[in-house]
Write a structure and sequence with these properties.
Protein name: Helix-turn-helix domain-containing protein
Largest sheet: 3 strands, antiparallel
Number of strands: 3
Shape: flat
Order of helices and strands: HEEEHHH
Structural class: alpha+beta
Number of helices: 4
Number of domains: 2
Helix content: 25-40%
Distance between the termini: 53 Å
Length: about 140
């Protein structure tokens, strides 16, 4: 069967099947899942704290003197590739992406770690040909909000 048709049939099954009443135990069996979901290949893992650090989703939780701090987590393999300033996209789109990245990283980072994070962001933007004055102007604009 065509994958699109299979997905459409599964979507119709989810959207239009009668819902079980609230608080009723639902225990799905392996046979009730479609084959394309590959339930057998899903693995549950657990992160373990190393050097008083624990990565969780896009953040890293740091235990320091009995207090918890948070900062943005990047894998070691992170290449820092974002939309290049030389690409053929609208300039406002590029600035919007830059501001979104700055806002996102500052929200996931405690205030005392902002300078370190902004230095990393500045290097990422410079590597993608964003002018330093544009970077600093947008950092100031985001921080003043």
């Amino acid at each position: 069967m065509d994958p699109f048709v299979t997905n459409l049939v599964w979507l119709q099954h989810i959207c239009y099947s009668p819902r079980p009443p609230l608080f009723q135990s639902v225990n799905p069996t392996r046979a009730s899942y479609p084959d394309h979901l590959q339930i057998d290949k899903i693995k549950i893992t657990m992160e373990v704290e190393e050097d008083e650090r624990l990565s969780f989703l896009d953040g890293e939780v740091i235990r320091s003197n009995g207090a918890l701090k948070k900062k943005l987590f990047r894998k070691e393999s992170y290449a820092g590739i974002i939309l290049n300033l030389r690409s053929h996209h609208n300039y406002r789109l590029k600035i919007g992406i830059m501001r979104s990245i700055i806002i996102w990283s500052l929200r996931l980072t405690d205030v005392e770690l902002w300078d370190e994070e902004l230095d990393k962001l500045t290097m990422i933007f410079l590597d993608n040909y964003y002018p330093n004055e544009v970077i600093q102007r947008n950092i100031r604009a985001v921080k003043s909000r």
